[in-house]
Amino acid sequence: MGSTVGSGHQRSLPPDRRSKPSAMTPRRFGRLPGRCFTWPARRRWRRRLSIAPLALNPNAAHAWLFRGNIHTLRNQPEAAIEATETARRLSPFDPLAFHYAGNIAIAHLAARRFEQAIEWADRALHDQPRNVAAMRVKVAANAHLGRLDKARAELSRMLTIHPKLTIAGFREVAHYVAPEFLELYVTGLRLAGLPEG
Question: Does the predicted TM-score (pTM) go above 0.85?
Fold first, then answer.
């Protein structure tokens, strides 16, 4: 019987010719965010994930976006916007550009610039109408502005896509977000009427 491509093929090769697992295999990569984002975050992993890729390639747009995400989650909105804008300049026609707009929306929410947060969330939703993260920004920002009707309308739309979302569930998923920013987020979602769960 001939060897097949896959794990059987790997076993049939001599040990020195077998491919070695990369440092970022899905199994290992899946464990990195917990190390990176647990609050208080482990500096070694956070630094490695946000700086090392840019040291290898300072023109890597997605590495700049990732750095922007880390700054946003650490409640550093100005640094987040700067890093994300760098990513946008490096990749202006990126099909995943809604991530750039969404990250800037979240950064404006963290900075309590609610009007700008809604504007950037709308940009993200224009490119990806089912972007739940951008919807959450709109819900929280409208609620903080006292526009509860708009916040509830957006919440209703969001719950059609993610019906099991609750305050408790969001807290569990967003455990890596800076505590003061998480409370700002949760307060907005609660004002809009998201169930406690």
Answer: no
